[in-house]
Known about the structure:
This protein has helices spanning 15-24, 46-58, 89-105, 121-132, 143-146, 148-154, 164-173, 222-245, 248-251, and strands at 27-32, 64-66, 110-115, 137-142, 194-196, 199-202. It is an alpha/beta fold. The longest helix is centred in the C-terminal third of the chain and has 24 residues, at 222-245. The N and C termini lie far apart (54 Å).
Amino acid sequence: MFREKVPVELARLSWIEAREAIRQARVGLLPVGAIEQHGPHLPLGTDWYIASHIAGEIAMSEEHLLVPGLQVGVSREHRQFWGTLTVSPNALREHAVALARSLARHGLSKIIFVNGHGSNCSPLEDAARDLREEKIFAFVFNWWQSIATTLRKLFPDPTAHAGSIETSLMLAIEPELVSFERFAEAGTVAQWGTHVEGVLVGFDAADFTEKGNVGDPKLADADKGRRVLSAAYDSLSRFCGWLATQNTEDLESRPHLS
C-alpha cells in the first residue's frame, strides 16, 4: 500500500457524519470484486483487493464517497478450485441494484461500480441499465479496459488471469500476500479458454489450466504495477470528474423517436 491518508468511507462514519459526507459527495464509488482462485501464488481476493484499492484512492477526495462494495462476484468458471466463492449473475445484478437504490434514497444518484473481475461485467451493466430507468445513474468502470493501451505497452506477454499484470498489481498493493516461492508451480498456459473453429468449448478454468493461472507471474514487476495503478487512478478520476459535471437530464434514457 502506498497511501498517506484514508478515503472517505461510508462504513467508517456515524449517521451524522454520513449525512454531511453524502451531501458533499458528487459520486459514489462502489467496488466489486471476486473471491476466486488466482493460481498458486496469489490470494483468492486478488480482484477485490485491486478494485477496492483503486476506488479507495479516488475516494480520498471529499467529492467522491467510498461505499461498501461486493467482495464476491460471478466466478462459476473457477468453482473447481478450492476456496472459490460465487453468486449467480442475477444475484450480483440484484445486489448492485439494491445498493444503488439505497444510495439514491439518500440523494446520491451518481454511482460507479469499480469492477475488478471480467465475469461481473454483464450483470453490472444490466444493473446500470435497470437503474437508469429509475433515474439512478450507475456506470461500470472496468479498470483493465479503461487503461488497455497502458497494459499493452507494459505487458506484451499473454497474461489473462493471475499472470504478470495481476501479480504486478498485488506486488504494488499487498506484496506480503504474493507467494514468490510458488511462481515455479504456476502453469505456462498462454491463452484463456479452449476453442475449436473459433468456438469456445472450455468454459471453466479447470478445462485448460491445471494450476489456475493464464500468463507467467515470473514476469511481474512491482514498479510496473504502480504504473498501472497510477494510470487507473487517472482514468477513474477523469471519469468521476465527467460524471460529476453531467446534468441528470442528459443522463436519462431517451424518449421514443418521433
